[in-house]
Design goal:
single chain; 11 helices; 0% strand; mainly alpha
């Protein structure tokens, strides 16, 4: 009986020792890499906005826009017009559609989607506050102008949160790695085509596009960095 008691005592000591030595795996409230990425994006947007408040365009805008417009993009020009078509009310409807689809597949993603889409509100306030005019025909080639102002690019804000979250919420933790990698490549190409198209058509200055991309990706990364919001999308078991 004494031997059994000694064994039982040793086992308890071993269990306590193992529990103390076991590393803590409890995750924090914030995903710091995403938080830092978000702050960098929003910081970049803030600096560009301060400059845009007092200048019609940045020093590199005219030369970069002329260079992009001087490239023969061939059939990609049609793609640029497709992106251009998705503006105003159509863009709002598309954004609502993205939120509804993702939330219908997993309602726990709804808060994440709604807060990410709130970057549109930041864009609207900034656009009305800065009121930067769109590129003019005396400086660059203007193929088409929509209404409203130039800074920042609303298309880039929209595509940044919508495309990134579609990949994350629909494929992350669900699709095989090769398919997820392919989806990220497609997402990058969509953002690149949208960015080039806004400049090529003369709708925006390059700095408008950079600012829209910084706002959209920065805001999305910041929202994703909050674990209670992003866990339904990022904390899936492989």
């Amino acid at each position: 009986m004494r031997a059994l008691g000694e064994i039982d005592g040793q086992q308890r000591v071993s269990d306590v020792t193992a529990a103390i030595a076991r590393p803590r795996t409890r995750a924090g409230f914030v995903r710091w890499p995403l938080m830092i990425l978000g702050l960098i994006g929003l910081g970049t947007f803030g600096l560009l906005t301060l400059y845009a408040a007092g200048h019609v365009y940045m020093p590199f805008d005219v030369s970069v826009e002329r260079w992009i417009q001087g490239v023969s993009w061939g059939p990609f020009v049609t793609v640029f017009y497709w992106f251009d078509w998705l503006e105003g009310t159509r863009q709002y409807v598309a954004g609502i559609g993205v939120i509804v689809v993702v939330s219908a597949l997993n309602w726990k993603n709804a808060p994440l989607m709604l807060l990410a889409a709130a970057s549109t509100a930041v864009y609207t306030v900034t656009e009305l506050a800065i009121q930067r005019p769109r590129p003019t025909a005396d400086l660059v080639r203007v193929l088409r102008h929509t209404g409203s102002y130039s800074y920042p690019s609303g298309h880039m804000v929209f595509f940044s949160w919508a495309v990134l979250l579609l990949v994350i919420c629909l494929l992350f933790g669900r699709a095989p790695r090769f398919l997820l990698a392919a989806a990220w490549v497609v997402a990058a190409l969509v953002l690149l085509a949208a960015a080039i198209g806004r400049i090529y058509l003369g709708e925006h200055w390059p700095s408008d596009v950079i600012a829209g991309l910084a706002l959209g990706t920065g805001w999305t990364a910041l929202v994703l960095s909050i674990r209670p919001l992003s866990n339904p999308a990022l904390a899936r078991s492989k």
